[in-house]
Amino acid sequence: WSLLFVNCIHIYQVVGHKEGLDVMERADPLFLLIGLPTIPVMLILGKMIRWEDYVLRLWRKYSNKLQILNSIFPGIGCPVPRIPAEANPLADHVSATRILCGALVFPTIATIVGKLMFSSVNSNLQRTILGGIAFVAIKGAFKVYFKQQQYLRQAHRKILNYPEQEGA
């Protein structure tokens, strides 16, 4: 029941209280019984997709051909002295609690970002969708940039011998 309650809150946030109540009253009970639990499932599955890694791979592959990336982000198209070992995506564990909480709080964040960035849009649903897309895109861009900086830092890392101390 608490899951259905959370879904109702998400619907009220996304489309507005009055419109959400109207949609829930007009909807078929079977659709509500099946449809409402799929909302958090889809949010969790969407949170687990690592699309930033695909964008990063494309960025590394084609950055030398796109000169605009080199002017915006210096050091992107430059050859690296060595290619660092790729981290196993399965080794980069994110706790299930973090995925669950992030997925369930996403409609709230999308609503807030939509109200802040797209206040000129009249429809609550469109504003929330645009806010969600903007939030995911901005957060993803920061993640991609951060991972690329880590990659470059590891590629330029030099391993030196530890100097022996005299008298030891």
Automatic annotation (TrEMBL):
<keyword id="KW-0812">Transmembrane</keyword>
<feature type="transmembrane region" description="Helical">
    <location>
        <begin position="129"/>
        <end position="146"/>
    </location>
</feature>
<feature type="transmembrane region" description="Helical">
    <location>
        <begin position="30"/>
        <end position="49"/>
    </location>
</feature>
<keyword id="KW-0436">Ligase</keyword>
<feature type="transmembrane region" description="Helical">
    <location>
        <begin position="99"/>
        <end position="117"/>
    </location>
</feature>
<dbReference type="GO" id="GO:0016874">
    <property type="term" value="F:ligase activity"/>
</dbReference>
<keyword id="KW-1133">Transmembrane helix</keyword>
<dbReference type="GO" id="GO:0016020">
    <property type="term" value="C:membrane"/>
</dbReference>
<protein>
    <submittedName>
        <fullName>MARH5 ligase</fullName>
    </submittedName>
</protein>
<keyword id="KW-0472">Membrane</keyword>
